[in-house]
Amino acid sequence: MHLYKNVLMDTLYRRKWFIIFILSVYRRLDPVEGLKCYCNSQSESCPNETCETDGFCFASTSRRDGRQHYTFHCIERRSLIPIEHPFTCSTTRSKNESVVIECCDNEDMCNRKLRLELPPPEPGNPAPAPAAALAHLRCMAHCFLLFLMLLKFP
């Protein structure tokens, strides 16, 4: 009985040290010391939809082609000017109908929870035409003027 108790205690003691060893190795393999943020850009700085920063997690909503577009990424500390209230994390004080921005640093992936909504466009102000449509219209107007000049001056 006494021998069995010693073997059991020795096994539990070794198992405890083995678990501590595994945890310490795991901590070395995951050397994350910064804030992890959700990221939805298609770049090398955003593997597996995460990025790491020593600054803030960033979330913004903008209106493109009449639809809301959400952007999430990291902002490094060196990019924050002024550090106590960075311009990058501020939406203008006037009623901005095209972009809303917010930053957070209270927990990992805190920006994933931020769903910023833009106010609906005012009915009197139609949505601006996309840049491609305006460029196409301009090109057609120039071609038409060129055609008229060719007819008038053969």
TrEMBL record:
InterPro entries according to UniProt: Activin_recp, Snake_toxin-like_sf, TGFB_receptor
Membrane protein topology class: Single-pass membrane protein
Single GO cellular component term: plasma membrane
A GO term, aspect molecular function: ATP binding
One BP annotation, GO: cellular response to growth factor stimulus
Subcellular location: Membrane
Protein name: (diamondback moth) hypothetical protein
Species this chain originates from: Plutella xylostella (Diamondback moth)
Lineage, uppermost ranks: Eukaryota, Metazoa, Ecdysozoa, Arthropoda, Hexapoda
